[in-house]
Design brief:
With about 100 residues, this protein is an alpha+beta fold. It is about 25% helix and about 40% strand. The protein has a 4-stranded antiparallel sheet with strand order 3-4-5-6, with helices on one face. Strand 4 and strand 5 form a beta hairpin. The two termini are about 20 Å apart.
């Protein structure tokens, strides 16, 4: 069993942000991050820009992360190298990625 101070990892729950959560008490000592969670995260989620996951313990928000779909684009040099290295194997000009758009704890 792993402990985080007095918290047990097993007692932390990850949930998708929704209107039911009171975000006003969350404070990570970074005004921009606090403001994003309180004012922008749900809008970004509704507009499918990013999905925000809250980490809760006894209904208190310990932290959050906002995840966004992204892509890793290859430079022309990387594309040439990929073709040379892989021969006949299929290559892609970009690869899917998941970006941590915002994080607060």
């Amino acid at each position: 069993m792993r402990h985080l101070g007095e918290l047990r990892l097993e007692d932390i729950v990850a949930v998708k942000l929704s209107k039911v959560y009171n975000l006003s008490a969350f404070d990570c000592n970074n005004g921009d991050i606090n403001e994003f969670l309180r004012n922008d995260a749900l809008t970004h989620q509704d507009e499918m820009i990013a999905t925000t996951i809250l980490f809760l313990h006894n209904d208190s928000i310990l932290g959050f992360c906002s995840l966004a779909a992204d892509a890793i684009k290859l430079s022309q040099e990387e594309k040439i190298e990929c073709i040379q290295d892989k021969g006949d194997m299929k290559h892609y000009p970009q690869y899917p990625a998941l970006k941590i758009a915002r994080y607060g704890r």
